[in-house]
Write a structure and sequence with these properties.
Layout lengths: L13 H4 L4 H31 L3 H7 E4 L9 E4 L3 E3 L6 E2 L3 E4 L6 E4 L1 E3 L5 E6 L2 E4 L1 E4 H4 L4 H10 L2 H12 L5
Antiparallel strand pairs: 1-2, 3-10, 4-5, 5-6, 7-8, 8-9
Helix pairs in contact: 2-3, 2-5, 2-6
Length: 173
């Protein structure tokens, strides 16, 4: 399970937040967290789709989201998924083995074959076989560009809070 937490201590608009009623303060902060969190979810999902070679929709269903509200000022992304079978990555049989595209790169897995259910297997000894697997979404969340994408999206938190405060403050005439 992977959780992303926002650190609100860096924000400078707290004085303006306190001009609002207490219930409105929490709503403004929750709206800010949800806006930035939704952008973060989209960015991370796109990054994971590219890194794993899985379709965007498949990655999107593997990431569960719990949004912030007045009583819980926290946005959570939870990635739950095991390793994906090579059959998901367009496995096709060939003379030298099965060709598949895990991690977005097509390659031939020498000495493999497609067995029951379209699964990819490799002979490991006389009468023994083992199933081959591709990437896992929770594992890939911590590799390469995905953490950098998340950090990039979190930079939008302070400007978004300022925007939400402007919306919530009464209009000045």
């Amino acid at each position: 399970m992977v959780k992303v937490t926002f650190d609100l201590r860096e924000l400078t608009d707290w004085g303006r937040v306190f001009q609002l009623q207490p219930r409105v303060q929490r709503k403004v902060i929750a709206r800010t967290i949800n806006h930035v969190g939704d952008k973060l979810r989209t960015s991370v999902t796109r990054g994971l789709a590219k890194a794993t070679g899985l379709p965007y929709g498949r990655v999107r269903t593997a990431i569960k989201t719990e949004r912030a509200h007045e009583l819980k000022l926290r946005y959570e992304l939870e990635a739950k998924s095991g390793f994906f079978s090579l059959r998901v990555f367009g496995a096709t049989p060939g003379r030298r083995g099965v060709s598949a595209r895990p991690w977005g790169v097509r390659r031939v897995f020498r000495g493999t074959f497609i067995g029951p259910g379209g699964q990819v297997f490799k002979r490991t000894g006389e009468g023994r076989i083992r199933k081959l697997w591709g990437p896992s979404i929770p594992v890939e969340m911590f590799r390469d560009q995905v953490p950098a994408l998340a950090e990039n999206e979190l930079k939008a938190l302070a400007p978004r809070l300022a925007h939400e405060i402007e919306r919530a403050l009464p209009a000045r005439v």
